[in-house]
Fold this protein.
Amino acid sequence: MISVRAAAQALVAVAVVSGAVGDRVPARTPVEIGGYQVLAADFHVHSATWSDGALTPWGLVLEAQRQGLDVIAVTGHNQVSDGRVARWVARELGGPLVLTGQEILAPHHHVIAVGIDRVVDSRLPVADQIDAVHQQGGVAIAAHPRTTFWPAFDSTALERLDGAEICHPVVYGRPDIQRELEAFAEKGTFAAIGSSDFHGLGRMGMCRTLVFARDGSAPSVLEALRARRTVVYADGGHVFGPAELVQKAARFPALREASVVTPPASPLDWISRVTGLLGLVGLVLAGSGVRAGSFSAEQQ
Amino acid sequence: MLDTRIGWTSDRRWSDEARTPWNPGAAYRALVSGGSPRGTAWRRPALLAFILGCATSAAVSGRFTPRLILDGAIAFAFLPLFAAAAFAVVFRRRRTAVAFGQALDLFFIGHAPSLLWLIGLAALTLVVDPRGLGPWLVPLECSLIAPAVWGLWIDFHFFREVHGRTPREARHDLILHRTLAWSAATTYFLGIAIWGEVLPQVLGWVHR
């Protein structure tokens, strides 16, 4: 007779095999608009290495491919080492483009530094942090700038800032937070940025930035951010970015769909989910199947 | 079958993880007398790493894929490693009749509530749309208290029954283990952010 544990192991095996079959890099057609390549980017991604993410730096690269992203920035919490590892892996694998970054964590604000190689001191005033990012050739983005962060960004900082997150997972189901991010964006002329702030819960790129770059290289992506050539599709049918680019992007419905729609689970996914959960419960709770006889307190 | 006098079943159709959490004192008394096969010290830490990997795969992609299970297991390997290392420190402090391998194997039974919590987390991420997970974050973090406290209770009985400690010694061992394992895991996981963000927030609450 098959033991419950053996059945559980078989269920887990079915889950893993069906999951593996469904785990493919999606086929994508490159989009060019007005002489620019349109690149799907997520500039706010964390690894499990000192930044409370759930994947290794190389795992982030592989997952970015599966989520149809052309560019990611691995933004360590006040460090850049995991970004360097991810960048090296991506170069070896042939993509996607990985930009080394840092989420500059200060008590009263967070800034995303993209395209830097050295750590920016989080104790500096925010305007000086932005200058330090620029000195390294990077761009500075206000991370999830809710009202509590606003006082940190004085007029000098707002002038120097390159971008601001206007789509972030915190806005889903929270129109009040969406309005906060929009109100911050009105404080300056920033590139519209959509970022998943990926830590492992949810999907990488579920908020993403469409970058209108001259080519797929790092300098071109950073130049496009400085020039504010970005479009972001956000929750509730909102779209942000320069009107001209928004109009042109509207002719490519797939761009919008990839930004705001989570692909539905396939039958294979459901097989993986159901068998996986049942199998894991079985693995933890099922014993060897041998009835060992009654254990009594007197046997002690 | 359930022995009503001690509230613990010896029916081997159920795993040690299923039987022990309900009456850990009686369960550990029975398990330590049964011994463990050789070379089994790594089994339960490996099971914890595997289920951590499965939960990661479910949360990240909505399916169980070998790529993400392996990656999640590697990314979170620090949890079983730090737990085992801290246990080794506690184990060496006093003489114990049980061999280290068997003791480690039995000690990791205390992770049973965490394993069930992880499976619950995986189930949640598989049924809730990824864009709807935000409101679940705080309840999820709060719900971690349940397996943490349950694990403390199980491990207290582990030190009492398997290591033969007095209640006071068992409490000391437990506190030492958790202090070592949790502080190392927190420092590694939150990393440099601990100094930049977490500490100032904690100090802010203290000075409020």
